[in-house]
Amino acid sequence: MPVRACLKYAEGADEVDALRREATLYGRELAALAGVAVPRTYGLYVGGTEAVPIACLVMELCVGAEVRRSADELGRLAILALCKVHAVGVMHNTPLDLRHFVMKGKKVFLVDFALAVVHRCENAHPVLWDKNFSPVVAAPHDLAECTELVEAERNIFSQVGENLPMKISPSFVRLQ
C-alpha cells in the first residue's frame, strides 16, 4: 500500500548540510516525539552531482484536522508541542509563529528544525499570557526562563486573538 509523504528538499552543499543536521535532530533528540509533537521521519536521501549535491528528507504527510478547532485551542496545542520539544533538549531557534506548525488529525506538530540547536530548558512549560501579555501566573517557579518559549507564546497568541486558553498544568507537557 503506498504511503503519502512530505518531502523537504535541499540543493547545494550548505543546504544539504543543514538538512543533514535537521535529520540528525529528528533521529536523535526528537525521536521520542515522533508522532507526538513532531512528524515521523522516514529517512534522508542524498545524491546529485559533485557540483550540485541534493538531499531529500522524507516525513509523514501532515494535513489539517478533520475536526474544527478554535483558534485559541490551536494556539494552546502549538505551545504544548513546542514545550515538549524543549523538554527533550531542542530549541527551534527561529521566531516562532503558527507557520511553523502543521496538523495531523487532531495533533499539532512543530516542523522546520533547520536552525535548531540542542538546548537545556529548565522550565519547559507554558507561562500563558492575558490579552495584555502579562503573565497569568505570578509564582517565580512557574515562569518560563526560556526566551524562545515566552516569545513564541506571545507571537502565537497574538495571531489567534484575545481568546487565550486557561492555565495549563506543566504535567500536560510530559511525553504521553
Provide an overview of this structure.
It is a single chain. By secondary structure, this protein is of the alpha+beta class. The strands form 3 sheets. Strands 1-3-2 form a 3-stranded antiparallel sheet, with helices on one face. The protein has a two-stranded antiparallel ribbon with strand order 4-7. The C terminus is likely disordered.
What is the compact description of this entry?
The protein is an alpha+beta fold. The protein has three helices and seven strands. A hairpin with a 4-residue loop joins β2 (41-48) and β3 (53-60).
Class by alpha and beta content = alpha+beta
Ends distance: 29 Å
What is the class of the largest domain in the CATH system? Mainly Alpha
Uncertain regions: pLDDT < 50 for 5+ in a row? Answer: 162-176
How many structural domains? 2
Number of strands: 7
Q: Please give the count of helices.
A: 3
Helix and strand element order: EHEEHEEEEH
What keywords describe this structure?
176 residues; alpha+beta; Transferase(Phosphotransferase), domain 1; three-stranded antiparallel β-sheet; two-stranded antiparallel ribbon; disordered C terminus
